[in-house]
Design goal:
The protein is α/β, with parallel strands linked by helices and 182 residues long. It is 37% helix and 13% strand. Strands 2-3-1-4-5 form a 5-stranded parallel β-sheet, with helices on both faces. Strand 4, helix 4 and strand 5 form a beta-alpha-beta unit. The termini are close together.
Length: 182
């Protein structure tokens, strides 16, 4: 199983992914796509957000395309060895903007997409609590466009603890027939 967790900044993608992986009774690889993109940016003005408006679209395209290729290659290597994969990354679907192409290489591997969509104020508070900047522009992506994807599931984790979010994710996956990796 490949689980791709996305959502706006502050939604809890990385936190939920790590907690979900820790709760499994089998080997699961955790990959943070945003960290890969930051690593590729090497020395740009903001190592946190490749969507920064000060970076030319062509350069963003390269970062996201290469990140997608790395994610797909890693996911394929892990799944070929019987290891489940969880990827956490901020990526819209509307369809994805031209500069985010590259993770289309992941699509043939049939990942299950989980879109975390907590309330905007909850995301803002989480970012502030982590000492991050309060750029809420990712919240304005058309997250509902994911409804058009056949393997996209939505989870509002606004008022859930991490443990409750893990349980809610397990329930959501089970409701849709995804039980591998429990």
């Amino acid at each position: 199983m490949i689980l791709f967790i996305t959502g706006p900044s502050g939604a809890g993608k990385s936190t939920l992914a790590a907690a979900w992986v820790a709760s499994r009774n089998r080997e699961v690889a955790l990959i943070d796509g945003d960290h890969i993109t930051s690593w590729l940016r090497l020395g740009e003005t903001s190592a946190v957000n490749a969507a920064s408006p000060d970076i030319p679209v062509e350069r963003k395209a390269g970062y996201y395309r290469f990140t997608g290729e790395i994610l797909a290659a890693a996911a394929r290597i892990y799944t070929d060895r019987g290891v489940d994969v969880v990827i956490a990354q901020l990526t819209g679907y509307d369809p994805p903007p031209p500069w985010s192409k590259g993770w289309d290489r992941l699509e043939p591997l049939a990942p299950v997409f989980v879109v975390l969509l907590p309330e905007r104020e909850v995301c803002r508070q989480r970012l502030v609590g982590r000492g991050h900047w309060q750029d809420m522009s990712s919240y304005d992506f058309d997250w509902q466009a994911w409804e058009n994807h056949p393997r996209a599931l939505f989870l509002d984790n606004s008022h859930l603890s991490i443990d409750e979010s893990v349980a809610a994710l397990d329930d959501l996956l089970a409701q849709h027939g995804y039980t591998h990796g429990a």
